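User: Structure with S-adenosyl-L-homocysteine, tokens only please.
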Amino acid sequence: MEVYGKTPQDARIARIAEERNIDRDTLRWLLATEDEDALFCLRKTARETADRAYGKRVFLRGLIEFTNYCRNDCYYCGIRRSSPCERYRLKEEQILSCCGAGYELGFRTFVLQGGEDAYFTDERLCGLVSAVKERWPDCALTLSVGERSRESYQALFDAGADRYLLRHETADAAHYGLLHPAEQSLAERKACLLHLKEIGYQVGCGFMVGSPGQTVDTLYADLQFIRQFNPHMVGIGPFIPQKDTPFGGEPAGTAEATIRLLSVIRLLLPKVLLPATTALGTIHPKGRQRGIRAGANVVMPNLSPMAVREKYRLYDNKAYTDAEAAECRDMLREEMREIGYEAVCARGDYRKEPETEEMI
Ligand code: SAH
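Assistant:
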């Protein structure tokens, strides 16, 4: 039966786009189906939605992994405090020189990511943020350093930080409890996200695909949380086991499920900044390209010094650990060009209004 010239499956996908919502059964169907025509329609609808919001542009963010010390003990993460990994912490001069090199390569967004490292008190981190913003006032600065107090988030914002990535990891409290020790809670995560948004950051939440214990129901909760929270950015990537963690023997998430969910998220939040993550590029050789073709519009090449890359091991077999920053950028540019997209270094802020040329 055809509805308005569409198959019932296509109509079901069109409804997600129109309502900017998805019901549990449709999610269940989209995660399980092998109907290639329906999946093609899902990706196409999502990609067209992204094109309408941001055009054929993919934003590059320079990622600097500046410390792998962490006070948390998340069961999935290779830099958890119980992990035997070798620790490092970049000095402020090293971080600034990564930014400088990134700036020369054209990057206009720097993402400073790290474990929850007590060395980085508000004073030290604010000092770092203002040093970056003083030298490169035309750049956006994104922080991804986990849970801090509201006062701390405010101080960092006042020091010049523009954006903050804090994945909620799962919106189901019981599932959150399965992924983290009892001292961490979903309520606290959500409170942090709310504070970040109230303060005025562009905020990113997100989750791993295929984490142990994840079900259609927990994913449904994730999507409803994302819809309600309405973040500026969403980071999702496959769970990849790291052998020294409690989940070292668990199966990895799949590129396929990640790509389907990227498309669904694009339909729920047409303007969201949505990376095709390193984890997706790790699990599948064409992962990042496939992510972009399914509606993602950000990639985050690594600007960290070569000497520490191997140590920032959230999961095993991380992609591109041996490519220099410039090489990394050029490879990504080429990957994007191959599929008809242009990798751009512009700040690429979240857009509330339809774009105009001078905003680019
Ligand atoms: N400490 C910071 C950022 C570092 S971890 C924070 O808490 O936000 C960044 C993200 O990597 C995490 O949010 C998690 O979703 C993801 N991650 C951690 N371990 C992973 C693994 N084994 N496989 C895939 N992604 C992982």
